[in-house]
Amino acid sequence: MPIQLGLRENARQFTLLVIINAFVGGMVGLERTILPRLAEQEFHLVARTAILAFIVVFGLTKAGANYYAGAWANKVGRKNLLLIGWLFGLPVPLLLLWAPSWGWVIFANVLLGLNQGLAWSSTVVMKMDLVGPKQRGLAMGLNESAGYLAVAATAFASGWLATEYGLRPYPFYLGIGLAVLGLLGSLLVRDTRAHVALEAAQAPAGPAEPHLSFWDVTWRHPNLGSVTQAGLVNNLNDGMVWGLLPLLLATKGFTLMQIGTVAAVYPAVWGLGQLLTGPLADRLCKKDLLFWGMLLQGAVLLALLFASSYPVFLLLAALLGAGTALVYPTFLAAVAEYAPASQRARSVGIFRLWRDAGYAIGALLTGLLADAFGLPSALAAIGGLTVLSALVIQRRMYCPPVADGNAAPAISCGQSARPQRPAIARSLWPGAG
Q1: DSSP letters for 113-172
Q2: What confidence tens digit (pLDDT) does each residue in 214-229 have?
């Protein structure tokens, strides 16, 4: 069968990868509900300590795995990385099921971080390879939506099983099923390196692209650096919401069911919203989506300081999910657009290294601020940092010109960051200019 680029042309493989990524997300959802209660009831740990330990270990391990997944993707193959990721994931539910001490749980989260970094990164890169330059926003919207809806669904299912049958063993049987199905599904995947070669061959002739260094993607490249810092801050504030929002709600006297509902609305809107925002990333200037998404997140976090009623918290949780949905598929689509095809996997890995390091940084920073100055001070600091991230995007990023209706070419390092008005018009309003 000839190699072709496009979502429709690769529908079967793309759909299989979406399903596999849902299994990847489900592995994280397994712990979102169970871990704090397990720490408190069976290992006699304070819930806050357990949450922070989980986020720090998971975030650091996943960040490192993301980086090496990008660096190794062209060497060992995307499919092989996906399979290796699932081999790390297989023992996780078994370790949690049998864990006699908290050290076993920490080790399980090291393996879970490796599973998430390698498997999720592989599915991301393979979908980018399959669809080509025109539909990457849509592809990332479908990918991230499947993953985060699975997080929410598995968190709900594991919580229900724990309520009905106890914390162990039944909730972790669900994890065993997810890991086995993820590994078996990955065996059916075809590697996509031939699609990368085809895209490179079809690219219009132009000046040779410079090599993107680690620091170019991290900061020096005006567009890639802006995306990377925003990704780190996004996951930093997500780690804060994950760990401290339930505590804030508890101080205001809400019931456990109300707290759970507020906590569920946020990822639900985040997951569903990406079905809309992913395609928008293919049509609108990515700078605008990222700026407004980060600004909305920061404004919501600051507004939480003044909220007191249950309906207001539900509304703010939904708005926070909407802001995150605006940026999450756009991050990956932007990295794919601004990096040359031959350097895409490595650039995605560097971006995801910093993005998921935000979980660990956020857990440590907000924990220290909350212990030293109280929960409101931690919330205000992270909200202000998120607004600052939006201002960095507004100042540094620009909308590259779009040629012949295709995605914008990669921008070489050091190119002027001054926006070009006709290019912005064409990217904001298709057909304009």
Answers
A1: HHHIIIIIHHHHHHHHHHH-TTSHHHHHHHHHHHHHHHHHHHHHHHHHHHHHH-SSSHHH
A2: 999 999 999 999 999 9
